[in-house]
Every structure is written in C-alpha cells, then in structure tokens.
Amino acid sequence: MTTLSAPPSEAFDDVATARRRARPWRWAAGLALAAVAAQLAWFLVNNDRFEWDVVARYLFEPTVLSGLATTVLLAVVAMAIGSVVGGLLAAAQLSDFAPLRWAATVYVGVFRGIPPLVQLIFWFNLAYLLPRISIGIPFGPEFASWDANTVITPLTAAVIGLSLVESAYMAEIIRAGLLGVDSGQRDAAKAMGLTPAQTFARVVLPQAMRVIIPPSGSQFISVLKGTALVSVIAMADLLHSVQVIYNRTYQIVPLLIVACLWYLVVVTVLTIGQRWLERHFSRGHTAATSARRPTVSTSDGAAA
Questions:
Q1: CATH code (residue 262)
Q2: Please, are residues 179 and 96 in contact by the beta-carbon 8 Å criterion?
Q3: Position 302 confidence tier, pLDDT thresholds 50, 70, 90
Q4: Domain that holds residue 154
Q5: Among 1, 198, 240, 247, which residue's CB has the most CB atoms within a 10 Å radius?
Q6: How far apart are CA 55 and CA 46, in angstroms?
C-alpha cells in the first residue's frame, strides 16, 4: 500500500468550505456552443427548402422501410460472415505454420487495401472474367457449374464485397484482442489442467472480448453506413430507395433527410447495444482496477 504524507508546513483545505474555482473559459465556450446551436435550430426551422412536410410524408413510405430492412439485413449478414472468417484469419495469423500465416496476412492486406466501392463494382462484374462458376477438382473434372450472370446478382455481389472487407478488418480486431491477453493467463490455465480448448473458451476469450467489443461495434456501425455504397450496383437499400423517389419527384433534399434520419435511428440503437456489451464484459476488469487503486493517507492518519 502506498502512503503519501504531506509536509507539516502545508495546511489542507477544508473540503466542506472550499469554493469552486472560476473557469471563465468554460463559460465562454458554453455560450459559444449555445449560440451555434441556436443558429442551427433557427436555420432548420425557418428554411422552407428543407420541406419538412415532405420528410414526414415519406418517412414511413413502404419502399423506404423496405430499403431500410435491406440495409440492416446486409449489415447483419456481412458482420456475421466477416466475424467468422475474421476469426479464422486471426487464428491463421497467430499460427506457427508459416505458409498459413503468410496467406492470411496477404488476404488481410489485399482486402483492407482495396476500397469497398471498387470491390463491389468488381464482384458485380465478375461474369466478365468467369462466364460460368463451377465447383470441382483443380485442373480436374467439374462437379457442377452455373451461369455467372444468374449467380452474381446485386444481392450476392453486395454480400460478397461487404463480407470480404469486413472479414479483413475483423481479423485485425480479433487478433489484437487475443494478443491483449497476458500470456501468464494461459500458463496459469495450463497449470490448472485445462485443455487448450478450455483455456481459450474460459480464460482467453472472455478477457479478449473486453478489447474486441468496442472496435467491433464501431466496425458494425461502419459497415451499416457502408451499405449505402451498394446503391451503385442497383441494390434496393435505403439510399437507393430514396433515390428512386427523388428521381421521380425531384425533391432531393427532403428525401436525403429521410435517409439520414433512419441511419441516425439505427446507429443510435446499435450504439446503445454496444455500450451495454462493453459494460457487461468489463465488469470484472473494472472491479479489479478499483481494488488495486492505492490508498493515500494524510499526515493525520486519515485515508483518502
């Protein structure tokens, strides 16, 4: 326990009678922010070109809600596939088998380095390179084949493109989380007689999740917003749905506001869920940190 004693010449202020120090810069910053907020509110309310009545009319339009459902579905599927593939890639990068480690490193480098929009367009035009997609033995017989134009639809191209990008990012997130667990934890589990599988499931993974959850939640939010890119391949997501409407009505700004509002709603819900998961997986760590906090004692023996 660390004990700090103040010099006898220094007198301690009575906390009960102490007054808060004046911070004029905080008052100035607060007033400036309030002025900016008031100006922004006035702009939103008094500018008729926002056409809030049009926003209210199309906010719950069936085609918009259908596009919203497609956006959420794409994000969930891409995150699920990306997490599974990313976990395998992370294990491969941590493997002692050098060829597997090199292959995983190249995969992550390639799919993190190419912009998602380029990948979406590439996969949508895969039929140019592969007119037929087949399954079989390399350089041997084929078991089955399909026309690429039939298989590669806007939906499949979107799932493939987003999942590949997501898997590369999730591989790095999971790898960092696993490396963040102290090696002594594995040694202690081995000394207790736990198998490697039990060590991973009961010791390593619960501690790694505290590091993995925050960036994974942010990555899920990023892929949700990234689904707007699939509108370039005519995928009927949220952005494409409002584009179809404003191409007919020429009410561009109100329809874009509709899309923005729905993106904000979904992201807010996901952020709340992310915060809950962070608190859930950091409970033991927070308690341990509080227990290790040193006690500071004053010269009269009172502990602080």
A1: 1.10.3720.10
A2: no
A3: very low
A4: 49-136+143-281
A5: 240
A6: 15
